[in-house]
């Protein structure tokens, strides 16, 4: 099981980014996404990269961690890049290779598309490396609160988010335990015909799912036993505090937005 | 009656977590160069075990978490996935779960529960169709994301290689549903019996 991959990407640290309010980081990410969507040339792409690398350095997390975050999507990035290179016919022709032809416009589009994808991944990694998942959920709930007036049940959604995040490591541990129990009884997926493999997958998935549902029942009972009622007014144990540094951090995103817009 | 929303809410969160866990599991078969993930199977399970609105919410929560940068799609950064050419398929998942749930509701309303297995073929056909419905959203998204792509090209790249896998996943999900249905109904039955009013217990 890739237990480490799942929501366990938070890296303990005391950098400036770690200490920021999660809401400022989340808002910063939204602004960053808007900026990246405006990127459409080499110049604007380099501005995006310069800003992102600066943020990465501020997080005091080694760049190899970010490279590792990009790695699972390299195939997708390569696919997008090659697609643009070979199927766009704008600008000067650079290369003729049989049926395929490379133009400067297509090459730029391909590299820019790859760059944008990489920027998305990198900045998302900054957020998940420097912010605990439950704090991200808290920040999201905070942003959704104005929608309560539109009838959206924000409190329930916030609770669902928290419960969902809490369930994930538990289910992983349970799946790993059941997997090992099955393997100790001779379970193996290697070299089996499809029908047998399907039967064995079911033998693995059914106990995991039933166990998870049993746990959900217990949790619901425990919540009721602790006097939880949906819709009742409640206080918040975990508080978020906005500092001046959060404002400055958010304002810094105006710079790339401004320059990228200017150069388009 | 107020107890019911809490339970529904917990189940919804649980199915979100199951989706995240299943997204991390990949299986390789000899006949397919593309590894098959259990991601869509989790969507089907959520649709089968939850009511339509809860099924939609359980998968929508994961999509939102992915948009926020959490690696909920098999360890990959979700935002790049959703913004990329395959994002349309991911955005379809909440609606797919809701459709499956609506179909289950319709079938259970018409049929006694014990005869559900007799209509497994109808269920299977619908599951496969709802899987294929993802391409109605995913393929145009694929075309728009890459730009300057013909429909035939998009279908060849994003649709045809995966159709067989979807059918197989539907079969697997159906078998899991039948295996799960009884124990989970038993679980709910136990809880329901325990919540009888005190007056009934003394009759």
UniProtKB/TrEMBL annotation, chain A:
<keyword id="KW-1133">Transmembrane helix</keyword>
<keyword id="KW-0812">Transmembrane</keyword>
<protein>
    <submittedName>
        <fullName>Energy-coupling factor transporter transmembrane protein EcfT</fullName>
    </submittedName>
</protein>
<dbReference type="GO" id="GO:0005886">
    <property type="term" value="C:plasma membrane"/>
</dbReference>
<feature type="transmembrane region" description="Helical">
    <location>
        <begin position="65"/>
        <end position="87"/>
    </location>
</feature>
<dbReference type="InterPro" id="IPR003339">
    <property type="entry name" value="ABC/ECF_trnsptr_transmembrane"/>
</dbReference>
<keyword id="KW-0472">Membrane</keyword>
<dbReference type="Pfam" id="PF02361">
    <property type="entry name" value="CbiQ"/>
</dbReference>
<feature type="transmembrane region" description="Helical">
    <location>
        <begin position="26"/>
        <end position="59"/>
    </location>
</feature>
<feature type="transmembrane region" description="Helical">
    <location>
        <begin position="245"/>
        <end position="263"/>
    </location>
</feature>
Automatic annotation (TrEMBL), chain B:
<keyword id="KW-1133">Transmembrane helix</keyword>
<dbReference type="Pfam" id="PF02632">
    <property type="entry name" value="BioY"/>
</dbReference>
<feature type="transmembrane region" description="Helical">
    <location>
        <begin position="55"/>
        <end position="74"/>
    </location>
</feature>
<keyword id="KW-0472">Membrane</keyword>
<feature type="transmembrane region" description="Helical">
    <location>
        <begin position="33"/>
        <end position="50"/>
    </location>
</feature>
<feature type="transmembrane region" description="Helical">
    <location>
        <begin position="155"/>
        <end position="180"/>
    </location>
</feature>
<protein>
    <recommendedName>
        <fullName>Biotin transporter</fullName>
    </recommendedName>
</protein>
<dbReference type="InterPro" id="IPR003784">
    <property type="entry name" value="BioY"/>
</dbReference>
<dbReference type="GO" id="GO:0015225">
    <property type="term" value="F:biotin transmembrane transporter activity"/>
</dbReference>
<feature type="transmembrane region" description="Helical">
    <location>
        <begin position="86"/>
        <end position="107"/>
    </location>
</feature>
<keyword id="KW-0813">Transport</keyword>
<keyword id="KW-1003">Cell membrane</keyword>
<feature type="transmembrane region" description="Helical">
    <location>
        <begin position="119"/>
        <end position="143"/>
    </location>
</feature>
<comment type="similarity">
    <text>Belongs to the BioY family.</text>
</comment>
<feature type="transmembrane region" description="Helical">
    <location>
        <begin position="9"/>
        <end position="27"/>
    </location>
</feature>
<dbReference type="GO" id="GO:0005886">
    <property type="term" value="C:plasma membrane"/>
</dbReference>
<keyword id="KW-0812">Transmembrane</keyword>
